[in-house]
Design goal:
Structural class: mainly alpha
Oligomer: single chain
CATH superfamily: AF1782-like
CATH topology: Substrate Binding Domain Of Dnak, Chain:A, Domain 2
Amino acid sequence: MSFEEDAKKKMERYICATERVFKTMEFLLPKDASLRRQVEENINLSKIYFDDSKYYFEKKDYITALVCIAYCEGILDACRNMGWLRYEWTFGTNSG
């Protein structure tokens, strides 16, 4: 398998896993209105990075797609680590 084929396959799994997170995540937003707005802005930013990732994936620019989706995941994980989101990453049995 070529580098490009491998990158494409991995990105397909990563995109599917991230779509599952967005569909299933539970919001546990803080009561403080200012903090809640900041959390919502970060979640929206993660969605923008995810959309960018899909855009670059369609352009076959798999490295840029991976960078974008990694930023998306980092923002979501930070929000989860702060207790504002609940979700699980699931990549299936052949992730990697």
